[in-house]
Amino acid sequence: MNPQPDLTIVGGGLAGSEAAWQAARLGLRVRLVEMRPQTSTGAHQTSDLAELVCSNSLGSTLPDRASGVLKEELRRLGSLLLDCAEANAVPAGAALAVDRDLFARQVTGRISSQSNIEIVRAEVKQIPPGPAIIASGPLTSPRLSRAIASLTGEEHLFFYDAIAPIVSRDSVNMEIAFRASRYGTHEQEEGDYINCPLNQEEYEAFVDALLEAERIPLRGFESEIHQGVRAGPRHFFEGCLPVEVIAGRGREALAYGPMRPVGLRDPRTGRWPHAVVQLRQDNLAASLYNLVGFQTNLTYPEQKRLLRMVPGLERAEFVRFGQMHRNTFIASPRVLGPSLQFRSRPDLFFAGQITGVEGYLGNIATGLLAGLNAARLLQNRPPLILPATTMLGALCHYVTHANLKDFQPMKANFGILPPLDLPVQLTSSGKPRRIGKRARAGLLAERALASLDSFLNEF
Q: Residue 113 and residue 124: Cα distance in Å, rounded?
């Protein structure tokens, strides 16, 4: 190893990679420690930094969507990973989806070529001494989990996350499936998604089979007692439920959830189907597609049997089956400040999913902020605490101020922003005029970016 670094970062995922880049470009000597490939996680498949193990989508690019606002904030803050994502984008309508392999390779290459960053492949078993960022992610190793639990004095909170299957594009029956994006503007326009339609009878049969299907027992690293670290209440994250869990909530739950058919006209019938399974491009070569929203923990034979019941997927070849894994996060409202510093040890930061943020963008964004603040700390400058009117500021405020009793991972959304302070306008009848949802989202987006610009001008 090189001489003692200025900053140690644990975890080479989205948050850790972004944090390392931000701190290094501000002049810090950074040691980025990633345990793969020496120690596997049970979910990752490569040794690349910033490997995506769930969806390949980073969410909407629309300026009046929460993820669109956070992307623009990241762009203005100089995010490396957003730049890499946009350079490796694949068609996904109004969303930013990436070729996951090319994205991770580019991030790895950029980080490796940064002269201020030393990459070390080893498992970290204790909290590092001196300035550090813990960005070890949802699959933090058992020994580091115990060290974090000892440090925080709080038990970890667990929830179970799941990833969706990927199929070969050539195995999809395009005589049944059709290409379209929701509410396509032109009938002849080829959409970015492949859609497999189900009529009501086919949907009912699929739900029946799904409810009876065999599930995979949780593995050792996902057990209720995680090698000496006491687990909190077992629960799922509502934003990433396995399809079998959704189906158990009601027979039409899937048709109103990941299988909703709205805005998708089947060219064979000219009508919306009763339900639909959407496939999204997963690589630039367009040879692989993932099943949108189809996270699952069914056994592999059951996944193959059930998904081949879907019209268009009767001969599907599975490149990756869905699986479930444990996701660990700390009691951030009790132990972290909005600068992402540990309250009782200011030279220690946490970033990424382990803080309770959810979604790729949230991981990148908190990594960026932790990297900037670690550099500012070592340069004797005050930490950045972004205004709660910005999307990143609101996300950090939420995870560090939420009611711990009901604390669940949170994605960027307009609901965590402070309400708008607008003058009351009256209708002709004298009643307060209501602002539409889209208009309100647009105003919140404008305020967020204006707040960020004003904040950055002061620094």
A: 23
What is this structure's pTM? 0.78
- Measure the CA–CA gap between 12 and 30, rounded to whole angstroms: 12
Low-confidence stretches of the chain (pLDDT beneath 70): 1-2, 41-45, 154-160, 184-189, 218-239, 325-326, 406, 423-428, 430-433
- 234: nearest Cα among 167, 308, 327: 327
Give the Cα separation of 348 and 407 in Å (integer).
Answer: 22
Reference 112, options 49, 174, 170; nearest CA is: 49
Answer whether 317's CB lies under 8 Å from 165's CB: no
The stretches of 153-293 forming alpha helices (DSSP H) are 200-212, 243-247
Report CA dihedral (342, 29, 124, 135) to the nearest 10 degrees.
Answer: 50
Asked if residues 12 and 66 have their Cβ atoms less than 8 Å apart, the reply is: no
Residue 387 and residue 455: Cα distance in Å, rounded? 8
Query: In angstroms, rounded to a whole number, what is the distance separating the alpha carbons of residues 343 and 321?
Result: 41
The DSSP secondary structure of 5-72, one letter per residue, reads PSEEEE--SHHHHHHHHHHHHTT--EEEEE-TTTS--SS--SS-TT---S-SEEEE--TTSHHHHHHH
Q: For residue 27, give Cα distances in angstroms to 74, 116, 340.
A: 20, 7, 20
Topology annotation, domain 7-154+330-415: FAD/NAD(P)-binding domain (3.50.50)
Give buried/exposed letters for 355-392 (b at 16+ CB in 10 A, else e).
bbbbbbbbbbbbbbbbbbbbbbbbeeeebbbbbbbbbb
DSSP state of 271: B
The CATH class, in words, for 163-326 is mainly beta
Instruction: Let me know: does 34 contact 56? Beta carbons within 8 Å.
Output: no
Domains 7-154+330-415 and 163-326 share a fold: no
Ranges of each domain in the chain: 7-154+330-415, 163-326
Which two structure tokens, joined as six digits, stand for 369?
């902020």
What is the identity of the amino acid at 315? R
Phi/psi at 146 (5° precision): -65, -40
